[in-house]
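Q: What would this chain look like folded?
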Amino acid sequence: MPTFTRYILAELAKVFLICLIGLTMMMIIQGVVREAHEQGLPVAQVPRLIPYILPEALRVTVPVTLLLAATAVYGRMSGANEVLAVKALGISPLAILWPTYVVAFLLSLATVWLNDLAVSWGRNGARRVIIEAAEEIAYGMLRAQHGYSTPNFSISVKGVEGRRLLRPTLTLQGSGNTPAISASAAEGELRADHAKGVLTAILRDWTFDAGGYRGAFPDVQVFEIPLSDATRAQDSSNTPSWLPLRQIPQQEIEQRELVLSQEQQMAAQAAYQMLCGDFDGLTSPPWDDRIEKLTSLRAHLCRLLTEPHRRWSAGFSCLCFAWIGAPMAIRLRNRDHLTIFFLCFVPILLVYYPLWAISVNAAKNGSLPPCAVWAGNLFLLLWGVLLLRKVIRY
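A: My prediction, written as structure tokens:
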């Protein structure tokens, strides 16, 4: 069946590529606009986000586009009685379905890679662009709103003239035993030092208030704020959802060792207290801290165990979508292509995605084993088997 195979692959590629380009461009525009708006990114820096948003957009659009292409191609073939002609010749419909399934399998592997690339390279790259534009972001917000704040610091001004800040008030959030610092000045300036990785705030004729202590100085004071603290970009590089897949196995080993070490320490401490007759101490606040730490370590381990399953199951949604889309299109031969697509996509939207999200959250919490993440894919697989049986039989 080389002729049929070439014909199907050509039709599938044509529809798939056209739809993929259109949907991906829409997703990129949406992602770039959302990120630029949330972070206050200057217009000149927006194009730098596009390469890092692209994997994020593709991992969403590839499965949906493949479903659209499969329903369009096989719906048209079935409507033109081409599938009926193949069956009349004694040829199984599987002969015209397997090229799409092979392509879907290969695209699933590519989507797994895109999932990994989007969270490990794309998110870090977008964060780096935002951090490098910290000075422009701050000045843009100060000119427009006379104020700019992040979780770690805030600055407000009476006005901005060029690079001069008029009557700036800088507040640095405290941490631990370090009190918050509030400094006001007659004028100031912001400078980003990318070599040192800091945003420098230069204040002239300044006063300060820190932990009840106040002072006034006529000279110049320099405050250095880490660029990562000077933007609203979140630093989640150590969370499992931001780690590359190749690093997760080693992280799992290290996390298991931390959990085991904490359990052994708690067991030894409990045994010592019971031997000493200190049973009341087993319910003391230090034990609450130990239990909370152990719970946190176990939760992080569950997330590490779940993350590979999450990315692989999300990637293989391509194969599952094509698995149901092609036979559904053949069955609904007289329907419009978009109607067939929505008849496939609505159950996916109402069942697959909620089931996948619920199972992912439950696996991360430890309520379900990590393999439960594949529940949504299993639902689509069984649905596709039922559709395929009907296509082959009738």
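Residues 94-132 form the longest helix (39 residues).
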